[in-house]
Amino acid sequence: MIQLKNIIKTYENKGQNIEALKELSFDFKKGEITGIIGYSGAGKSTLLRCINLLEVPSSGEVIIDGINLNKLDSKDLRETRKKIGMIFQHFNLMRSRNVAKNIAYPLKGSGLSKKEIEERVDELLDLVGLKDKKYSYPSQLSGGQKQRVGIARALANRPNLILCDEATSALDPETTVSILKLLKKINKELGVTIVLITHQMEVIKEICDSIVVMEDGFIKEEGDVIDIFSRPQAPITKRFLSSIFNTEKINNYLENIVVKPEEKIVKLAYVGSSTEEAYISKISRDYNVEASILFGNIEIIKETPIGNLIIKLGGSEGNIIDTIEYLNKNRIYTEVLKDGKKLI
Ligand code: ADP
């Protein structure tokens, strides 16, 4: 649906070139919520703004539903942009206008009558749960309410795509969850494709179907959120996930654990139904290894359990290798964390 092809974006600043995007291509899937994650300066915001040409790429193409945005004249680009809503970190509401007028703003010049605009605004207020704030001014609203107005305004022209620029970064955790739930509802009920940028894995975990991990102007890893959470490959992705899976704390803890030469500490990552099988008793029985559980945790992502279990495996080298092979074949992804006295 949204195709980015060989996008490069270079900014010029005081005679210096800053390469914010260093040639990247990506296809965003229709109807999905895709989360772009990266640390500050990774290029997320630039990438998001290239999608609706708020930033014009230095080279490369942006193709939405088969239309090459780079080739549109300014009038057609304006029309296409109407079908792309945008939500901002600091809401970008007009302070001098009430909620209804803020939401109605994008409908200016739409050809709708005053009555039709009023009806649309009421419909949107109902959708975002702000019916009683119709005549309030932004200064009278909480952060979460302001963002709800921002979302209603973004939906005014019935877009099929919404771009969210750190939409929840200025909100407290509880409000963040309620705004993410609203975005999920919009995605499910209205079929709106959503692309959001964030520096918080919790946001991705809460609502995204796909994830794009950015660093230094490149896409370092991308894919289905369950695949990436259960088997991250890029070091940057592992770093982002470490807060969720306590990786650093686990490593510190493991340093102090004594492992005999014939033992290995192994991390098992499993997804969904693997959790229902009696693998631990099976490997002890069939592969003649001793398996003791050190600790484990489970995250539920998109209603799918993703578990991490750290176990100590003892036995002959051959038996341990066979055990690991057996687990991997059964989609329990293994990683040896400590081998004898070595931390891996
Ligand atoms: P992120 O959203 O991941 O924090 P940005 O896309 O904002 O990253 O920035 C990527 C890089 O581009 C950074 O080095 C930033 O300083 C630079 N940059 C962004 N916007 C501009 C601009 N308008 N002029 C010059 N440099 C910019």
In short:
With 344 residues, this protein is α/β, with parallel strands linked by helices.
Topology:
Elements: E1 2-13, E2 16-28, E3 33-37, H1 44-51, E4 59-64, E5 67-68, H2 74-82, E6 84-88, H3 99-104, H4 114-128, H5 143-155, E7 161-165, H6 173-190, E8 193-198, H7 201-207, E9 210-215, E10 218-224, H8 225-230, H9 235-245, H10 247-255, E11 263-271, H11 279-287, E12 290-301, E13 304-314, H12 317-329, E14 332-339, E15 342-343
Parallel strand pairs: 3-8, 3-9, 6-7, 7-8
Antiparallel strand pairs: 1-2, 1-4, 4-5, 9-10, 11-13, 11-14, 12-13, 14-15
Helix pairs in contact: 4-5, 5-6
Explain the overall architecture.
This protein is of the alpha/beta class and 344 residues long. It folds into 2 domains: 2-242, Rossmann fold, CATH 3.40.50.300; 250-343, Alpha-Beta Plaits (2-Layer Sandwich), CATH 3.30.70. The chain is built from 12 helices and 15 strands. It has a 6-stranded mixed sheet with strand order 6-7-8-3-9-10, sandwiched between helices. Strand 4 (59-64) and strand 5 (67-68) form a beta hairpin.
Helix share bin: 25-40%
Q: What are the low-pLDDT stretches, counting only 5+ consecutive residues below 50? A: none
- Largest pleated sheet: 6 strands, mixed
Q: Quick check: average pLDDT?
A: 93
Q: List the domain count as a whole number.
A: 2
Question: Top keywords for this entry?
Answer:
344 residues; alpha/beta; Rossmann fold; Alpha-Beta Plaits; 2 domains; 6-stranded mixed beta sheet; 5-stranded antiparallel beta sheet; 12 helices; 15 strands; 36% helix; elongated; binds adenosine-5'-diphosphate
